[in-house]
Design a protein that fits this description.
Number of strands: 0
Order of helices and strands: HHHHHHHH
Strand content: under 5%
Largest sheet: none
């Protein structure tokens, strides 16, 4: 870990602290506007995922299957931030109740299911590359691996926070206090912005310090 890495880790910690404080410092109207689905965090997340994909395209050489898979995955995340995952179908193709709804044409559900399956395969391949690098190849000892692990961890945490609200209310019928709603929203949207930035940093560094995206020669 270099001095720059330590400074960046400090910046990430300060960012997390700021996210924790914002629900208590901002007025409800300002907070809702900042962290809404059309707010600045959401829009910047879209640009950040596109930027992460561009970093891989520009930086990684030789450009092979791992780089192509991560580029496609980051662009898919950008498309999701733009709500394209439900723009061409009746509802989101990531929800199981979409495929159970008999009112939706069968052809649409079949095509959507095939696309969803392809996306799942892409995610599984990317997860395999990450685990192989971090564990089997001891990538955690590299600078790229450190930032990759942090970015991947924030990605999982952000998705968990995204689903926690629905699980608590729909499954367990739990009414969350307002302060918890604020913290959940702040970290969910805030982490969605930080994640692609950290993964882009990892991709840039990996060309020299942990080449998990390079094609085998």
């Amino acid at each position: 870990m270099t001095a720059l890495d330590r400074r960046l880790l400090g910046l990430v910690a300060a960012y997390a602290l700021a996210l924790a404080l914002l629900p208590f410092l901002l007025s409800p109207q300002t907070f809702d506007a900042a962290f809404s689905e059309t707010g600045p965090f959401e829009r910047l997340s879209l640009l950040a995922w596109i930027g992460a994909a561009v970093v891989i395209i520009v930086r990684i050489r030789p450009f092979g299957a791992p780089a192509a898979a991560f580029t496609a995955l980051y662009l898919l995340f950008a498309a999701r931030e733009a709500d394209l995952h439900k723009a061409f179908t009746t509802r989101s193709i990531s929800k199981l109740n979409y495929y159970r709804d008999a009112s939706i044409p069968l052809t649409e559900r079949i095509v959507a299911g095939l696309i969803a399956l392809a996306i799942l395969c892409l995610i599984a391949y990317a997860a395999f590359v990450v685990v192989r690098f971090l564990v089997a190849r001891r990538g955690l000892r590299t600078r790229a691996g450190m930032w990759l692990a942090l970015g991947a961890g924030l990605l999982v945490l952000g998705k968990a926070l995204d689903r926690s609200a629905a699980v608590l209310s729909e499954v367990f019928d739990v009414v969350r206090p307002q302060w918890m709603i604020g913290l959940t929203d702040a970290f969910e949207e805030g982490l969605e912005l930080a994640t692609p930035l950290l993964l882009a940093l990892s991709a840039w560094i990996s060309q020299k310090h942990g080449p998990y995206l390079r094609a085998a020669r």
